[in-house]
Amino acid sequence: MSHRWKRAGRSVASLLAAGLLLTACTGPAAEPKTTAPAAAPTPSGPLKVSVITHGTAGDAFWNVVKNGAEQAGKDLGVQVEYTSDGDPGAQAKLIDNAVAQQTGGLVVSMANPEALRPSIEAAVRAGIPVITINSGEDKSAAYGALTHVGQNESIAGQEAGKKFKDLGKHKLLCVIHEAGNVGQAQRCDGAKTGFAGTVQTLQVDISNPTDAESRIRGAVQTDSSIDAVLTLNSQVAARAVSAIKAVNSKAQVATFDLNSDVVAAIKAGDVLFAVDQQQYEQGYLPVQFLKLYRDNANVVGGGKPVLTGPDLVDKSTVDKVGQYVQRGTR
Which UniProt keywords apply (predicted)? Predict the structure, then answer.
């Protein structure tokens, strides 16, 4: 290339550079550049949410969870499908089926987190948002769930133990009704922390109420120093009351969760108090949260669980709360 063309090229480059500099310093281009946030995609069609729990058939507690989820669906225009199975392997298959059917969101209770982990992680990989409820709070984020909705079982157990302590009790029997349920173990461990005296546990089977009552009766009859019994389910509470009366034990009962029988027992003085985790919220709120996530990319909780309890119900509050138990929302 000749020197003349090189000089011409440098002159053109100089003119272009000057023009760019002028443009950068004057006129509209000198104003700060702003970028509008990208618009969220507009959802199409109704949202379908699969609620899959470990509840057993006929369990009044899980009926209230189901009521909450279905009411949220009605209120928000969400299609809610509720299924449950107390066997962890069968529950995992229900999750797998929901994923295969391309559900829009999953709500899962994790009484046995390790058994459900592969299924929940597969759902997350498939792009399905998951919210865990009730049990498995400490594994929820690790498995990829958006948040956890429920009662912190350790805190609830501590409150129950402390209440018994304040009532002057010395030896507590904590009745576990589902083997392998981490939440129930956490409740009893929490009760040990909150209670000043001795705490022992008893394993029963909620699916065999007669045997559960027999085991509780045997425990309080064998050890007359037991003066407090904490059940972790409202149906087991009724069995505990019958067992104690049958052997004229001095033990008094408190329980987790409410039903109409527990309300009546609190009024009659047969049950001292109930630890209410307000499970209607555990059904209702996740459906609402998944709708917000799909429609507005909202994530509730800020990385922390959304707590629904504990709320202690005793004679001073049972009349007010009892009316909601009757309609199936507490």
Answer: Signal
**How many Cα atoms sit within 13 Å of 117 on the Cβ side?**
11
Per-residue pLDDT band at 13 (split at 50, 70, 90): very low
41: DSSP letter:
P
* CA distances to 6, 15, 21, 33, 167 from 18, in Å: 18, 5, 5, 21, 86
Query: Residues 240, 238, 66, 202: what is their CA dihedral angle, to the nearest 10 degrees?
Result: 10
**What does DSSP assign to residue 216?**
H
CB 124 within 8 A of CB 130: yes
- Return the sign of the alpha-carbon dihedral for residues 47, 48, 54, 55: positive
Tokens describing residue 45: 């069609």
pLDDT in tens, 117-168: 999 999 999 999 999 999 999 999 999 999 999 999 999 999 999 999 999 9
pTM of the model: 0.78
Measured distance CA(68)–CA(55) in Å, rounded: 14
Element (H, E) at 117: helix 113-125
Bridge partners of 141, per DSSP, are none
